[in-house]
Amino acid sequence: MMMIEIILFGYFITRVCGDGVADVVLSCTLVEEGVGLGGMGGGALFTRTPASLVLHDIAVASDESLEELTPFVPPSIPDPDLFLFEAKVSSPKIPNADVLLHADCNEQEVTCEISRYSPQGSQESSDPAYFMVSLSVEGVDFSTAFIMQTLMVEVNQSTLIQNKLGLPLSHTGTLMTEVIFLVFSHIKSVSATLSGDVLLSCGFKQQEVPLAQEVSIEWRLQHRGRGHKVLEMKTKLDDMEGSTVVHGDRRGSSVDAAQVVGEGNASMTVTRLKVLDEGIYICTVSVGHFHAQQVIQLHIVQPPQVSLSEEKLVLKAKSAQTLSCHCKNYYPLDAQMEWFSLSPTDTEPELFADQGSLSSHRQHGDKTYSLSSHITVPPTVTPGTKIICRVYHLALDDPHNVSVVVESPKPDSYWWVLGFLVITVLFFYQVMR
Ligand SMILES: *[C@@H]1O[C@H](CO)[C@@H](O)[C@H](O)[C@H]1NC(C)=O
């Protein structure tokens, strides 16, 4: 039963080890390319096998109660068929890793994928072996990819070898590893307005003993199946002087070399945003033979400028009038308009009988859209009634209202009324005489 639960919820917390650190066990998927499928003639076929990852020494905020944690117990009989990874994450630390401890209570799904990693340009060798882990928590801005390196295991006759991976297991049947390099982001998705600036978060950390002194940062933008390089920076961690930056065709993006070197902060600032800047940004950090990526989605949102065609709406005695509501220069495309009326005797606006006819969307040179809705205001509307155009759009937190108050007919129609009165008075005058 317990095992089933673990797999269903994808996650459970384990023992707390002394001061402010805890372990967490994640249920992951081991993704292997084309293993054992040679005979099937498939190219890039992947097999997905359940695996567990124990992360040791996750920092916990000191004010937190950790009483409800259940201890992690390794299987009593080591099983060479299981994939049970153990990793120390004290150095380098995974930023904000404590969200992993709360994901279960908050019913947030943890996505954890493990795959074999071969360092670029290094000789194929299985000692040590490397694995890439990508980890993210649903609904939280937590995302990281890190490389684990297997630790040396003293091999003797009783040492078990993992059946599929061919790697020696610890006496508890786990694959002992340490995290040597990680790339992370504080955001998964960000929205920004046109002509504004945005910071796309990306950072990296490596072991205390650096893997290499040279680091290269590449930012790419992927949009609707097309990709291009936005920026590439190469710098030395001990000497910033030699850093080089190559820009793609997008100007106005920058990565701060001092922050790269000083803090491992490879975040990119993009200024004067255009609709064309929208898409998926990929931050790749390469250090020595290792590289890892983070993906951040940028959405451009621009609220509509809303206006009515008339500042005053004076009723005409007989003919209906047209009133238009214009939404200008917004992005993305989806915008909704609704018409309401609020008569002087009512407290709540009600839907207007005519919900208007929409113009077609117009797209401008800056790729923003405009849309108008036209209604007919009949002469029967009570003067003093407020007519409201309400606009809903992604970029607006609350719907935007514009309104006009319907006024009584103009004085020239009073003349008609006055004339009528005069005639009536004259008539009575004649009759009374
Ligand atoms: C990078 O630095 C900026 C401030 O310049 C900060 O807002 C951001 O959180 C940092 N990002 C990372 C990933 O460290």
General description of the model:
The chain has 4 helices and 28 strands. With 433 residues, the protein is mainly beta. It folds into 3 domains: 1-181, no CATH class; 187-301, Immunoglobulin-like (Sandwich), CATH 2.60.40; 305-407, Immunoglobulin-like (Sandwich). The strands form 5 sheets. Strands 2-3-4-8-7-6-5 form a 7-stranded mixed barrel. The longest helix is centred in the C-terminal third of the chain and has 22 residues, at 411-432. It is elongated, with a radius of gyration of 33 Å. Residues 1-15 have low confidence and may be disordered. Bound molecules: 2-acetamido-2-deoxy-beta-D-glucopyranose (NAG). Residues 186, 199, 201-203, 259, 265, 267 line the site of 2-acetamido-2-deoxy-beta-D-glucopyranose.
